[in-house]
From TrEMBL:
Its cofactor is FMN; [4Fe-4S] cluster. The lineage of its organism: Bacteria, Pseudomonadati, Pseudomonadota, Alphaproteobacteria, Hyphomicrobiales. The keyword Coiled coil does not apply. Belongs to the complex I 51 kDa subunit family. Pfam families: 2Fe-2S_thioredx, Complex1_51K, NADH_4Fe-4S, SLBB. The keyword NADP does not apply. One of its GO terms (molecular function) is NADH dehydrogenase (ubiquinone) activity. It comes from the Bacteria. SUPFAM superfamilies: Nqo1 FMN-binding domain-like, Nqo1 middle domain-like, Nqo1C-terminal domain-like, Thioredoxin-like. Keywords: 4Fe-4S, Iron, Iron-sulfur, Metal-binding, Ubiquinone. This is NADH:ubiquinone oxidoreductase. Residues 500-545 form the NADH-ubiquinone oxidoreductase 51kDa subunit iron-sulphur binding domain. NDH-1 shuttles electrons from NADH, via FMN and iron-sulfur (Fe-S) centers, to quinones in the respiratory chain. The immediate electron acceptor for the enzyme in this species is believed to be ubiquinone. Couples the redox reaction to proton translocation (for every two electrons transferred, four hydrogen ions are translocated across the cytoplasmic membrane), and thus conserves the redox energy in a proton gradient.
């Protein structure tokens, strides 16, 4: 929503006075390093509630960048703002699951209580209210971020209570506990968000010994570690399914003076939240897996890229890293092994779905806009700072630690051919028991639905919007790499849901989240969404189905990153598995002319101006 210039000027007067010396000090805290530009801008955003023109100039001078380059970063990420925000920013999750769970009533309650509309900031600069895409809390929707504090299972009544408490002088943290600062980082995180572990398997969510995998790895050669991971059959758990051992081997074999391990904790796929649970319940196991990977490929530095929506977990992860440094499990001579030095820093994201692509994530870590790079070369050859870089997600690295503990054969024997071990499934939507399930690969969709209390499902989205939407006739299909592959998301939709409403939402998500680099992705997804709107209005003809297929193929073939390569899948998989939904809305006329003129849209403005309904062309009265 565009901000009124006069109101924006008034808000600037309400902002904290910008101190150039403070901006210089923030830059100095990050070594005036332009590669830490995202950290610098996040710090300034949190302190001053916006990135002002003055800040852009000072930061550019301190980091040796042009002002345009700094502004390019500031304008790329949705959690950074070039206009003033309130002291408290309330971001309501606008995922389709939140909508079905009552988001509209919650949003209306916040608007009424605050006296502002979505996208606005109060005149006194106290509050901003806006929507944000999926924040990884579909199992406890509707949800919101209040600054960096997370609130779940919201209702309209609760929204009024929250605003009243904030207006009375309570902080967002006070909403969680009056003694919030006295809680441990784990207690703070778990008070905000339930882990909702519905089924704990034998690998990740059951009992896990401390550092057993790392101890075993330190007695092995790098080649031996890689061979064990390869023999286990471990594949990347983020969706692509590339062999983890092969990725490590390629990075280790590439000649270089430095190598890096990056944990992708930026699970932004709508409906996915299993890494959130591992970050909360198994942070030591994650760091153990990263340390094992470092030993295998010869890396001395690692990064945990934590999505901005998970900022509430930053303190927990920082505490874990510090604890492990004190215990000799990170830093110089890990576990006393001379020559093996490895440490990790946390890189916070700032609201950009495209940073889930590994090359975009690396760009973000380097202080640039999170735009995907053309491949090849791949990150294992030329990644962070141009060095060989292993990028694995949270679940993959946790699995690696358990494999080194229990052995490759133990892991290989679980699951099925081509899909070994266990998988964490994030289950949400129209079911009785949303949450995380750790199950062996090969489970049928029907069996998972029975466990989750979703037997009455009419449709299931496997793998999030970039995955596959299936109907009841496909519920015996198996959750595996060779059948229904998924990074973890399983979203259940009941009989009352409108398939095209769901498709329309996911297409709007891809339109908003495209980085804009590729014309087919930037423009093509808009055209796809417009075509879906025609179907929903009953204006589509038979040729529009071919149009959807042809345009989708063009976008997937010509985009350079995973977003564009998968964004048409909500349309393509529903066309394949729910053809009657589309054909029922195709209405060719008797003279074979398609009605491209929408009389309802044409008279809508006149109807509003006249403040009366049309009794000739109003749907409620007939023609």
């Amino acid at each position: 929503m565009a901000q009124d210039p006069a109101k924006a000027d008034a808000l600037i007067c309400e902002m904290p006075r910008i101190d150039n010396a403070d901006i210089v000090a923030v830059c100095a805290a990050y070594g005036d390093d332009h590669h830490r530009l995202l950290d610098i801008l996040r710090t300034l955003q949190n302190r001053y509630r916006w990135i002002s023109p003055q800040m852009l100039s000072v930061v550019a001078a301190q980091t040796g960048q042009t002002r345009v380059a700094v502004e390019g970063v500031a304008s790329f990420y949705s959690f950074l703002s070039l206009t003033p925000k309130g002291r408290i920013t309330i971001r309501l999750c606008d995922d389709i699951i939140d909508r079905f769970a009552g988001l509209k009533a919650v949003a209306a309650a916040f608007e009424a209580a605050l006296g502002i509309a979505m996208g606005e900031t109060s005149d006194d600069g106290a509050f901003s209210l806006e929507y944000t895409p999926c924040i990884g809390l579909c199992d406890q929707a509707p949800a919101a971020m209040i600054n960096d504090v997370v609130m779940t299972n919201l209702t309209a009544d609760r929204a009024h209570e929250i605003v009243a408490a904030l207006r009375s002088g309570q902080s967002p943290q006070d909403l969680i506990s009056p003694r919030f600062s006295a809680l441990t980082p784990y207690e703070q995180a778990s008070r905000m968000v339930e882990s909702n572990i519905r089924h704990a398997g034998s690998v990740l969510l059951g009992p896990v010994p401390d550092n057993a995998g790392l101890a075993a790895a330190l007695d092995m050669t790098p080649e031996g570690i890689i061979e064990a991971v390869e023999a286990s059959g471990l594949r990347g758990c983020g969706g692509a399914g590339f062999s983890a051992g092969k990725k490590w081997r390629l990075a280790g074999a590439t000649p270089a003076g430095r190598r890096y391990i990056i944990c992708d904790a930026d699970e932004g796929e709508p409906g996915t939240f299993k890494d959130r649970v591992l970050l909360t319940e198994r942070p030591h196991l994650l760091v153990e897996g990263m340390t094992i990977a470092a030993k295998a490929v010869g890396a001395s530095e690692g990064i945990i890229y934590l999505r901005g929506e998970y900022a509430y977990l930053e303190g927990l992860l920082a505490a874990v890293l510090e604890e492990r440094r004190i215990e000799g499990l990170l830093g110089r001579a890990v576990m006393g092994q001379e020559g093996f030095d490895f440490d990790i820093r946390i890189q916070m994201g700032a609201g950009a779905y495209v940073c889930g692509a590994e090359s975009a994530l690396i760009s973000s870590c380097e202080g640039r806009p999170g735009e995907p790079m053309t491949r090849p070369p791949f990150p294992v050859e030329k990644g962070y700072f141009g060095c060989p870089t292993v990028v694995n997600n949270v679940e993959t690295l946790c699995h690696a630690a358990r494999i080194l503990d229990r052995g490759a054969q133990w892991f290989f024997d679980m699951g099925q051919a081509g899909s070994h071990g266990t998988k964490l499934f994030s289950v949400s939507g129209d079911c009785l028991n949303p949450g995380v399930y750790e199950l062996p690969y090969g489970m049928t969709v029907h069996a998972l639905l029975e466990m989750a209390g979703g037997e009455d499902a009419a449709a299931v989205l496997v793998g999030g919007p970039s995955g596959t939407m299936i109907g009841r006739d496909s519920f015996e299909r198996r959750l595996s790499f060779d059948d229904l592959a998924t990074g973890g998301a399983v979203v259940i939709f009941g009989r009352e849901r409108n398939i095209l409403e769901i498709v329309d939402y996911y297409m709007s998500f891809f339109v908003d989240e495209s980085c804009g680099y590729c014309t087919p992705c930037r423009v093509g997804n808009v055209f796809l969404q417009q075509a879906i709107a025609k179907f929903r209005k009953g204006l589509a003809g038979p040729e529009d189905i071919d149009y959807l297929k042809d345009l989708s193929a063009t976008i997937m073939e010509t985009s350079r990153c995973g977003l564009g390569m998968t964004s048409p899948r909500p349309i393509l998989t529903t066309l394949e598995n729910f053809p009657l939904v589309y054909s029922a809305l195709v209405k060719p006329s008797e003279d074979r002319l398609r009605p491209t003129f929408d009389i309802q849209s044409a008279i809508d403005d006149a109807r509003k101006l006249a403040r009366r309904r049309s009794y000739i062309y109003d749907r409620d009265f007939g023609q």
